[in-house]
Amino acid sequence: MDTKKADQKIYLKTLLKTYLLHEKEKIKDLDARGKWEYIWQYYKLWITGFVCAVAAIVYFTVHYFVTPQDNWFYGVFANTYADVGEHSELWEGFVSYAGLDVKEKNVVFNNNCYFDPGKNGYNQYFNAFVAYVDSGTMDIVTMETGHLKTLGKKGRLMDLSNQEIAGTLAEKYADRLVYATPEDTEYSTQPIPIGIDLSDTCLVTEYHIYEDSCALGVSSLAPHLDQVEQFLDYVIGQ
């Protein structure tokens, strides 16, 4: 078996050498421009593929070693086509306000999530949203207020009345609390605060992320509550 493989390698090397000598013979009498035109005409797909492969390797190498892996803050702006992603005006304003060094850690504004929390069945965006929550990646989600109330019934938003987890958020934003009654009656049969109403803030009035109403929910496993409070202070104070 090893002898067969060795013979195959010798055959391929000989074949390649013969082919290259043949091609060299074709272009030996051409000037530099003629040689380049010949090579480009017959090998442009190979050249393009090689350049793209090198570019991809460089990009992913730089991305892996240079781009920060951890986050300062991760927000999901669901069900909107507004420009609120990375380096948007809202993103830039918040990063500046909070004094966050994005060379050290990321500030992620994810506006590529579309789902109706009241509908059952498969939805890739909802499944991604659940993954953001359950992995402890996401800090906040914003939605139209009615949708947030529906989402709050499902148990993946923080109970803001739980001071052990939510700190003083419910007390600080008491006049803005949004309530929902959990589907899990063992948790509570009474409405609990699951969101903060931001309908009168820049999210609606200036950036038009939502046209009529907007509320913010905090992930039940939010890892950056300090930045959540900074974000709330920023959008309410604008």
Question: What does this entry show, briefly?
Answer:
The protein is 48% helix and 13% strand. The chain has nine helices and six strands; from the N terminus they run H-H-E-H-E-H-E-H-H-H-E-E-H-E-H. The protein has helices at residues 2-27, 32-66, 89-98, 124-134, 145-152, 163-166, 169-172, 202-205, 225-237, and strands spanning 71-77, 106-110, 140-143, 177-180, 192-197, 215-218.
Structure description:
By secondary structure, this protein is of the alpha/beta class. The protein contains 9 helices and 6 strands, in the order ααβαβαβαααββαβα. The protein has a 6-stranded mixed β-sheet with strand order 2-1-3-6-5-4. α3 links the parallel β1 (71-77) and β2.
User: What's the alpha carbon Rg, rounded to whole Å?
Assistant: 28 Å
Mean pLDDT reading: 86
Unreliable stretches: 59-66
- Beta-strand proportion: 5-15%
> What string gives the helices and strands in order?
HHEHEHEHHHEEHEH
**Which structural class do the helices and strands define?**
alpha/beta
According to DSSP, the number of beta strands is 6
Main sheet overview: 6 strands, mixed
Give the % helix: 40-55%
Q: What's the number of helices?
A: 9
How far the N terminus sits from the C terminus, by CA atoms, comes to 74 Å
Shape: elongated
Strands in their spatial order, largest beta sheet:
2-1-3-6-5-4
